[in-house]
Amino acid sequence: MHIGNMLEELLQKEGYGVLRAYSGTEALLVLESGKPDLVLLDLMLPGLNGEDVLPRIANTPVIVVSAKADTDGKVGLLLGGAVDYITKPFDTKELLARISVALRHAKAPESELCYKNITLRADTREAAVDGAAVRLTRTEYAILKLLMSNPRQVVTKSVLLDRISEDTPDCTESSLKIHVSNLRKKLREAGAGDCVEAVWGIGYKMGVGDDGNRPTCRVRRPGAP
């Protein structure tokens, strides 16, 4: 059985939802449509290979699955952003254990998200621009948090509505544009500029920096300096 089919069947039996990509380029498209909880990344992909894809995955734990076993290669990938590396052939029990550990670590609560001069605090659900508080509604806060958590990706309208639905049942497809418009106005008036961009017909993303480069969101967790 092809390893991809085997992994999909194994993970589904364990209760995981699975999305598959058959090339590096397709993997990036899948990631743009939403943020998975974890990525299993094979290095030997057609098109863009795993080494090319890894640095373009932000804020998502990645376990590299590869037949390459040289130490230097493993170290380079771990330093390059992977949270773990498992060599083929592997024991499925070991893989499941590594997935469980990676997901457990990833669920450690975020204390603070920072993007340009915007700061969000998860513990108090407060937003600030240059240290000055900005009063956001519950829905506006949820939208901004999701966008800041995926600063290099376009978040589609359907994904955005699905991800924030538990916290903000008042946000619907028809009202989403109004919520985003109000959020953008508040951030602009606070000095954050036009940092939330609309991608016509698709969704929203965080804007580019003054130098033309897209800033990376910094995440601080409890106990971090």
Weakly predicted, low-confidence segments: 209-214
Q: Calculate the mean pLDDT score and round it.
A: 84
**Cα-to-Cα separation, first versus last residue:** 47 Å
Sheet with the most strands: spatial strand order? 7-6-5-4-11
Task: Kindly describe this structure.
Helix content is 38%, strand content 18%. It has 225 residues and is an alpha+beta fold. It starts with a helix and ends in a 5-residue tail after the last strand. Helix 6 crosses helix 8. The strands form three sheets. A five-stranded antiparallel beta sheet has the order 7-6-5-4-11, covered by helices on one side.
Summary?
This protein is an alpha+beta fold.
Question: Any key phrases for this structure?
Answer:
225 residues, alpha+beta, five-stranded antiparallel β-sheet, elongated
Please specify the SSE layout and strand pairing.
Elements: H1 3-13, H2 24-32, E1 39-42, H3 50-53, E2 62-66, H4 71-79, E3 84-87, H5 92-106, E4 112-115, E5 118-121, E6 126-129, E7 132-134, H6 138-149, E8 155-156, H7 157-164, H8 173-190, E9 196-199, E10 203-206, E11 218-220
Parallel strand pairs: 1-2, 2-3
Antiparallel strand pairs: 4-5, 4-11, 5-6, 6-7, 8-10, 9-10
